[in-house]
Write a structure and sequence with these properties.
single chain, 356 residues, binds zinc ion
């Protein structure tokens, strides 16, 4: 537009087309009172003979520009963009991440930022240009580092492979868009049992993300650290009796079973220590809402147990199961009040009121 420099108009290399385009622009100018300053405009040609170029230049009254040229910070060229041409796009990603100032944001928060900020930025550019694969891989790598470390530079192993994160939720991923096409379509993937949990809105996003990590068994528990040869001894911080693993920490004796016992009493449903997902799926006599609340309670408990385990690792303090469950009850109660879900079933309503 006359006041901006971000408009490109295309037409065939033919005087008639150029005349029509200029005429259309004049009609627009008359209607809106916006007049083109031809001195500020350039006209570009590709594959046009010198004679036609000279004619069109004289007809349009614009000066001839050279190809490639810059548009919105990117190089515009009749050839495919090179990796070098896209450097400014990669820099924009890095700038955006630095601007987010994110070390204290949870994994779930970073995941939202990747979808809403970074992938939107990518979509905008990908609509205009065909980006080279190397650039897409670089952008993926930036998003990956950002998710796990909160910055774009840190190099260390990710907790879960990017391909898994980019799988649809029903196939065990987080449904993040894979910028490099739809790789997950290639192998046939089975639906996962706990997939319905990922869609429960009642759960706090950070608890949901954490529970997803547990389903992937990707937390850096002692058994894994021993396997990686980072530590040599494996002992559970919370009981000091057994070896620490995902199963032991969240679904076995002693600490988690005490917590599960307290929580079972609170919700009035006996939650088993093992095969929780299987048990949850088989709860046919419960209303859907009640099932969702129970899954939310279990996922929150898993999160609190890990928090307690880390507190013990750093400060050597063990939070008693009673205290941990009190915090959990208060958080779930707040969440239920906050979301204010109403059940059509009277019994479920009474049950939920009892939890608040
Ligand atoms: Zn233990």
């Amino acid at each position: 537009m006359p006041d901006s420099d971000d408009l490109i108009m295309f037409c065939k290399r033919d005087k008639g087309y150029v005349e029509l385009m200029i005429h259309a622009y004049e009609l627009f100018s008359r209607a809106y009172g916006l007049v083109m300053n031809k001195g500020k405009y350039d006209i570009y040609f590709n594959g046009v003979s010198e004679g036609i170029m000279a004619d069109i230049e004289a007809l349009s009254g614009m000066k001839m520009g050279g190809i490639p040229f810059r548009y919105l910070g990117m190089t515009v060229s009749p050839k495919r963009l090179s990796v070098m041409d896209c450097n400014c796009l990669v820099e924009k990603f890095v700038e955006r991440i630095r601007g987010l100032g994110t070390r204290k944001i949870s994994y779930a928060g970073r995941l939202v930022l990747i979808t809403s900020v970074l992938h939107t930025l990518h979509s905008y550019w990908a609509r205009i240009f065909i980006l080279p694969k190397t650039v897409i891989h670089r952008i993926d790598a930036i998003c990956r580092k950002f998710l796990w470390h909160g910055k774009e530079t840190k190099e260390s192993p990710a907790l879960v492979a990017w391909d898994i994160i980019c799988r649809p939720k029903k196939h065990g991923g987080l449904g993040l868009k894979n910028l490099d096409g739809y790789k997950w379509l290639q192998p046939a993937l089975a639906n996962v049992r706990w997939a319905p949990w990922v869609r429960i809105k009642l759960m706090l996003p950070k608890h949901k993300f954490f529970a997803w990590l547990v389903t992937q068994q990707r937390l850096l528990t002692h058994d894994r650290l021993v396997k990686m040869q980072i530590i040599s001894e494996n002992q559970c911080y919370l009981c000091g009796l057994h070896e620490e693993s995902h199963k032991h920490l969240f679904f076995e004796r002693v600490y988690s079973s005490q917590c599960l016992c307290l929580i079972s009493l609170w919700v009035g449903v006996q939650i088993p220590e093992q095969n929780v997902v299987q048990w949850w799926l088989s709860l046919r006599d419960r209303s859907l809402l009640k099932k969702q609340v129970i899954a939310t309670v279990v996922c929150s408990l898993i999160y609190y147990i890990w928090e307690c385990r880390n507190k013990c690792r750093i400060e050597n303090i063990i939070i008693r199961p009673e205290v941990l469950c009190k915090r959990l009850k208060s958080q779930i109660g707040d969440r239920l009040r906050c979301i204010n879900i109403v059940s059509k079933c009277r019994a479920t309503t009474v049950w939920m009121e009892g939890l608040q």
